Amino acid sequence: MTTGGVSVKTCSASLSMWMLGGSHERDAAVAREALEQGDTNFKALVEIFVGRKSSHIALIKQAYQKNYGRQLDQDIVRIEPSHPFQKILVAISTSHKAHQADVSQHIAKCDARRLFETGEGSSGAIEEAVVLEIFSKRTISQLKLTFSCYKHIYGHDYTKSLKRGNSTAFEDALKMVVKCILNPPNYYAKTLYASIKGKTVNKGSLVARVIVSRAEEDMDEIQKIFRRKYGMELREAISESIPSGDYRDFLVDLASKTTTAKTISS
């Protein structure tokens, strides 16, 4: 059954996610849904682990265990068949347990050089072990500084080094993760546009997930980038691409209220 061209199941799931008590509860629900799919939704998991602070990740894991009686870390480790995204997620999850508060310019420069020497500075594919070691020991803020140093030292983004010839599956996964770390608003603006204008079956579900998850983070900046890149407001793109009905109205209202709420509170 559908409502305005969108399945009732999709609409109900998104509305339920929005009504959950806190953002950590919503993230726990998104993580569970991502893991329960036939093909694990690795991007949804990456967005959670990259986009949340360590204290928030701890709350997500607690909510996941309380609501589903399972350990989130263990469920990620047990994914079959194994996947490059899985390796990166395990490393980032480990880094969240370190609770390092400060970032170090010296460490960032050293890590940038290691990434270069085991990547574009060598003749073969990047050394996964080195990348995973760095990801497992550094906070997201520290990794962001590392990639900034990489660009300063070598004159281009680290992701450019991952676009060489026949890239491996690991390099492709790593490129997506790095983009999410480097510039979240730009990453999410592109994700929203690709979903809204593409041929995604459940485009409304993805749009709702992004809008809800970033509502308390950087939704204003995402909408500014979306407007600048694509020449239209996010709510207009949603209205044009998702069939009319209560679900579309819910998404448009959610996108519109985000900016309004932030403007009023500032």
From TrEMBL:
It comes from the Eukaryota. The keyword Glycoprotein does not apply. One of its GO terms (biological process) is response to cold. One of its GO terms (molecular function) is calcium-dependent phospholipid binding. Keywords: Annexin, Repeat. One of its GO terms (cellular component) is plasma membrane. SMART domains: ANX. InterPro entries: Annexin_repeat, Annexin_sf. Coiled coil: none annotated. This is Annexin. It comes from Acer yangbiense. The lineage of its organism: Eukaryota, Viridiplantae, Streptophyta, Embryophyta, Tracheophyta.
